[in-house]
Amino acid sequence: MKLHQLSVFLENKPGRLSEPCVALADAGINILTLSLADTQQFGILRLIVRDWQKARDVLEKAGCVVKVTEVVAIEVADQPGGLATVLKALESESVNIEYMYAFTFRSEDKAVLVFRFDDPDAAVAKLQDRKLNVLSPVELYELVEQ
Fold first, then answer.
1. Is the Cβ–Cβ distance between 61 and 34 less than 8 Å?
2. How far, in Å, CA of 46 to CA of 86, rounded?
């Protein structure tokens, strides 16, 4: 139920963002979704790709500093209050969200969000207890290909 996310550490200067993107493109690796967070001096490019091991190797060979973390993709009702419902469920279970970002596609009437939890295994169990749809990597990749 967990996905592997690549976090690429970048200097916050013109041209630094294109370097990992070009390296992945040259290797034929498609970025399924991404998030970019920055400070004045550095940024973190977070990526979800199908073959994370190959992408990690490509990026490291290109000179990037890469960290692999586990994240969870959850289907959320794509309507007012959909996210609030999930957040309330997590709050009531004392699950800590470190960060989150949206996936670049929808699944029928659902949005797909990526969450980084301080304890992904506990979060997945609690979400499933609440009947929230936590997507497996296979389910997620199948949605992307539709």
1. no
2. 22
Q: Give the homologous superfamily in CATH for domain 70-145.
A: VC0802-like (3.30.2130.10)
Instruction: Say which CATH superfamily domain 2-67 falls into.
Output: VC0802-like (3.30.2130.10)
Q: Where are the domains of the chain?
A: 2-67, 70-145
- Of 8, 16, 116, whose CA–CA distance to 70 is shortest? 116
pLDDT one-digit tens code per residue, 59-106:
999 999 999 999 999 999 888 999 999 999 888 888 899 999 987 666
For the segment 22-33, what is each residue's pLDDT rounded down to a tens digit?
999 999 999 999
Give the other-Cβ count within 10 Å of 15's Cβ: 8
Per-residue model confidence as pLDDT tens digits over 35-58: 998 888 889 999 999 999 999 999
